[in-house]
Amino acid sequence: MNLEPEKQPLEAAEQQAAEAAPKKFSLFRKKEKKKKTVKQEVISWILTILGAVALALIIRMFLFEPIRVDGESMRDTLQDGDIVYVSKPAYLRGEFKRGDVIICRYPNRNTQSNVNVGGSFEISFTHHTLFVKRLIALPGDILEMREGAVYVNGELVDESGIDMHSTASTTFGPVLLGEDSYFVMGDNRGNSNDSRRVGPITRDMIVGRVERTILPLSKFWDKVE
Questions:
Q1: Which of 24, 33, 133, 223 is catalytic?
Q2: 21 in helix, strand or coil?
Q3: pLDDT tens digits for 173-196?
Q4: Can 223 be counted among the known catalytic residues?
Q5: What is the dihedral of CA 200, 203, 206, 211, to 10 degrees?
Q6: Is residue 73 flagged as an active site residue?
Q7: 3 state SS for 139-204
Q8: Which neighbouring-strand residues pair with 151?
Q9: What three-state secondary structure class fits 25?
Q10: Sheet (strand 172-176) strand order
């Protein structure tokens, strides 16, 4: 008895299944990720760098920044070379307080630099010199110094932590601070270029409040007051 013809339908079915299998599998196969061109890679890196720079600038302008103390004008509260943590949000909201240690700018103390980026096209940058001082008086205050002692609105300011021997003979005022006028002085009164020489500063010249010393680490847990 010849059974060979009965195998043909089975073989045909197996062949059809085999041909259909790769097509079915291809429906679930993940698409291969296209490789980026050199130009796309360069653009991607540039955008990443620009994003990081923009984020750093936003943090520096609106949140905080570390600043290095340069000079002896705030001795003994802060020493030359200390790195301090400067907070921005409170001062952006206008929450100024007498006695705060602040970072500020002075009138006409900036430098201008130009960078040529091709042909006659230049980008200008303004660099401001920053100072660390103590905020002594606010707009509308009456400020006076008598033999080195500071009086604000007729009341003696407690400055027991400040060495005033070098300015014991200093007397000036009384001075009425106008609108948007802030008076700053260094704790090292005998060696500080401050509002006694440059005059009051304005609100836009105040960068932020010094919260604490970051370096040296031995002073990290001490709040700057």
A1: 133
A2: helix
A3: 899 999 999 999 999 988 889 999
A4: no
A5: 110
A6: yes
A7: CCCEEEEECCEEEECCEECCCCCCCCHHHCCCCEEEEECCCCCEEEECCCHHHCCCHHHHCCECHH
A8: 144, 156
A9: helix
A10: 155-156, 149-152, 142-146, 172-176
**Side chain identity, residue 65:** E
| pLDDT tens per residue across span 111-164 | 655 556 556 666 655 667 899 999 999 999 999 998 888 999 999 998 887 766
Say how far residue 167 (Cα) sits from the centre of its chain.
34
CATH number assigned to the domain comprising residue 95: 2.10.109.10
Task: Tell me the residue range of the domain where 189 lies.
Answer: 43-219
Confidence of residue 43 (pLDDT cuts 50, 70, 90): confident
Q: Is residue 139 part of a domain?
A: yes
Selecting among 24, 34, 73, 192, the annotated active-site residue is: 73
**Cα–Cα distance measured from residue 145 to residue 156, given in angstroms and rounded to the nearest whole number:** 9
Identify whether 28 is part of a domain: no
Is residue 107 reached through a cis peptide bond, with omega within 30 degrees of 0 on the bond before it? no
A 10 A CB-CB count for 36 gives: 11
Give the number of domains in the chain.
1
Report the share of the chain in percent with pLDDT over 70: 72
Within-domain flag for 34: no
In a domain, 99, yes or no: yes
